[in-house]
Design a protein that fits this description.
This protein is mainly beta. Helices cover 10% and strands 46% of the residues.
Length: 279
């Protein structure tokens, strides 16, 4: 704001009883916390699988109640059947995976209260909020066998890469869309800085974040050779007793995979002053 405009606003306030308003439209922040995968390898939402996550975001505040947010999030997902002690079938199946996950998201937030970093009679310095939106994310599940890392989409553990069905050997996409939604609480620390605590989940449109979805495939349909050895069947069925009978359930495609972010964020708001309407 130029000095001449500031002087004009001051004179307008003194002469006509106007109030100078301060817009809090632009807000920048980052967060850090944990990510949790939910799916065939973690059906009970066990936080034993919680791993690190973080992100950065920009908020545009339309007013004290409504906000849009653009965010970039990055985390790590991890699950292992052997950790689910109360599920004998999962213990016997003995599958596991790990995956980095990168997400671009846009969400719409609604504050429960009129929220402001600047004190006034009709606003509060804290508020719960809810949000929902859309996102696109990248994932690439892998496992380790004999100390070696294997990217599972390339293996085709459920027969997706078989040459026996040329029309169905494409594999699965490593990009997918999701609907992020959640709840949080934001608290003003001063006129620029604020803290927020947030928990969110994603409704995704893929069941292969964990590389587990359908039934065990025929051995001849899982071909992934390393140094002349077909590692495909060994990676598709890691059970000690070889429970992977072709056609038998390996996972379930009824429910899509999900992931959860829980974290603490810090934001900085850029204030801009405006000449308001005259009273």
């Amino acid at each position: 704001m130029s000095k001449s405009l500031q002087i004009f606003c001051l004179l307008l306030t003194l002469l006509l009883g106007a109030k100078i308003s301060y817009a809090q439209e632009n807000e920048f922040g980052f967060w850090a916390g944990t990510s949790v995968y939910v799916g065939d390898l973690n059906p009970t939402i066990s936080f034993k699988n919680a791993r690190w996550a973080s992100g950065a975001f920009y908020r545009y505040n339309f007013n004290n109640r409504m906000t849009v947010r653009a965010a970039m999030n990055y985390g790590f997902l991890d699950a292992d059947d052997s950790r689910i002690k109360r599920a004998p079938f999962l213990q016997q199946r003995n599958l596991d995976f790990k995956s980095h996950i990168a997400e671009l998201a846009a969400t719409f937030e609604i504050n429960f209260f009129k929220y402001s970093l600047i004190k006034s009679r009709d606003t509060k310095f804290w508020t719960p909020y809810i949000f929902i939106g859309a996102s696109m994310f990248y994932y690439n599940p892998y496992t380790k066998y004999g100390g070696r890392k294997y990217k599972l989409e390339s293996v085709g553990t459920e027969g997706q890469k078989t040459a026996n069905r040329p029309t169905k050997n494409r594999g699965y996409d490593q990009y997918s869309f999701a609907i992020p939604y959640g709840i949080g609480v934001k608290v003003a620390l001063n006129t620029n800085w604020a803290l927020n605590v947030e928990a969110s989940s994603r409704i995704t449109f893929t069941d292969y974040i964990d590389d587990v979805s359908g039934n065990y495939a025929e051995a001849e349909d899982v071909n992934y050779f390393v140094n002349g050895v077909n590692m495909g069947p060994l990676l598709a069925d890691k059970s000690a007793t070889h429970v992977g009978i072709p056609g038998k359930q390996r996972g379930t495609s009824k429910d899509k995979d999900r992931f959860i972010f829980v974290g603490v964020g810090l934001t900085y708001t850029i204030h801009t002053s405006k000449c308001p309407k005259v009273l």
